[in-house]
Amino acid sequence: MPDAAPDSTAIATPPWWREACAHLSKKDRVMRRLIPQYGDACLESRGNAFVTLARSIVGQQISVKAAQSVWDRFAALLAAFTPQGVLQLGAHEMRAAGLSARKVEYLRDLARHFDDGRIAPAQWRAMTDEAIISELVAIRGIGRWTAEMFLIFHMMRPDVLPLDDVGLIKGVSRNYFGGEPVSRLDIRELAQAWQPWRSAATWYIWRSLDPLPVVY
């Protein structure tokens, strides 16, 4: 379980990033253009499963900027961002930070799963992406999109393609289709060239829309 405030957790980066960039630059003309624009910046993880999932819930259906604002107010309520700390907060305090009633319920359910041991992060390293997704979506408020964000930002799994992500859809439309609407099939076919590094490609598509990297 996490035992420190989220911003004090050490930042980790994926060991496979350089290899992914080399592959993407070779296989995809848009990636060849995008990757040099962001220098040494890369995917980062705070290595804290509870914080990562909580941030993903907070960020659902709102902009990155709005999510960061709500998160800052929410995290400020706690000296240490732990499951126990969240469970001790009153719903009114959490709502005052900008969280919807439903997100309050989701965050409390997430905290209970960690607090009572129903979630066992130590087992995830040996599990496939789909097995982890199946386990996470059993928690209220965590759908496939949130589970995929977790795989990318916490587990740093290299080949995740979040087909329902609004940013990925918008970025692919802008960078590859001249702003025309794109389907999940369009993205899946395009992303064949990105394999086995679709997480990195997705990260660069996000950056093309917002140069400030997200860290969950």
From TrEMBL:
Give this protein's Gene Ontology molecular function annotations. Answer: alkylated DNA binding; DNA-3-methyladenine glycosylase activity; DNA-7-methylguanine glycosylase activity
| Sorted UniProt keywords | DNA damage, DNA repair
Domain HhH-GPD, by residue range, is 58-210
Q: Which GO terms describe its cellular component?
A: cytoplasm; protein-DNA complex
Q: Which InterPro entries does the UniProt entry name for this protein?
A: Alkylbase_DNA_Glycosylase/TA, DNA_glycosylase, HhH-GPD_domain
Give the reactions, separated by semicolons, that this protein catalyses. Hydrolysis of alkylated DNA, releasing 3-methyladenine, 3-methylguanine, 7-methylguanine and 7-methyladenine
What Enzyme Commission number(s) does the record list for this chain? 3.2.2.21
Biological process terms in GO annotation: base-excision repair, AP site formation; DNA alkylation repair
Q: What is this protein called?
A: DNA-3-methyladenine glycosylase II
* Lineage start: Bacteria, Pseudomonadati, Pseudomonadota, Betaproteobacteria, Burkholderiales
